[in-house]
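Known limitations

C-alpha cells in this collection are predictions and should be treated as such. Users comparing against experimental data should check residue numbering before alignment. To illustrate the layout, the record for HTH gntR-type domain-containing protein is reproduced below. The input appears on top and the generated C-alpha cells appear beneath it.
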Amino acid sequence: MSIVVKTLSEQAYEIIRERILSNDILPSKPLRQDSLSQELGVSKIPLREALTRLEQDGFLISHPNRGFLVRPLTMSEAEDVFHLRILLESEAASSACVIATDADKKAVAQAFAEFRTLTDKTSHRRVAINREFHLAMTRPINRGVSQRIITKLHFLSERYVRMHLEPPHREESAFNEHQRIFDAWMAADATAVKTLLEEHNRQVIRDLRQQIPSE
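Generated C-alpha cells:
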C-alpha cells in the first residue's frame, strides 16, 4: 500500500469541494479568500490554485469585482449536463463492455462493490464512488478526449446527483438501476448497457424537475 502525499492546494480543494457539495457554502455567495486562508491554514497561493481548479471543475464561477462564487444549481444546466451524458457516456460504456479485459472488469466490480457498501447516500465518498463506477465502465474504449469530456460532465453533475439522492425513496431505486447496469456491463450486453444508462440519466432529469424550482 503506497502513501499518497497531498499538496496544500489539493487538501484545500477537497475541503472546499466537500463544503460546496454539502451546501455549507451557499450558491452565489462570494468566498472570502482571506477568511478561508486563515481557517484552512494555507497561504493565498495554494488557496488560489484550489479555487481555480474548482472553477475548472464547474463548482465555482468568478467575477472581476466579486471573486469566486459557488455556481447556482439550475434545471437548464442539469438538463444540459445529463443530456450530454446520455449521448456520450451511454455510447462509450456500451462500446467498452464488449472489449473489456479482466482488469477492466475487476475495476468496475470493485467500484460497484464499494458503492453498494456505503450507507450515507449523500456523502462525498458515496457520490465520488458513484462517479468512479460510471467512469470505470467507459475507460476500456481508451479515447482520451472522450474520457476527459465524460469526466468533466461527471464533475458538473455531482451536486445534482447528491440532490437527486436526497429523497428517502430514491436510494432503493437508484441502487436497483445501478445493479441492472452493472449486470449488463459485466455480461457484455452492449444494447442493454446503452438502453439502461440512457434511461438512468433520463430518470435523473425527470426527478430533478420536481426538486429544482422553475427558472
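For this record: The beta strands are 60-63, 67-70. The chain has a mean pLDDT of 89. Please report discrepancies through the issue tracker.
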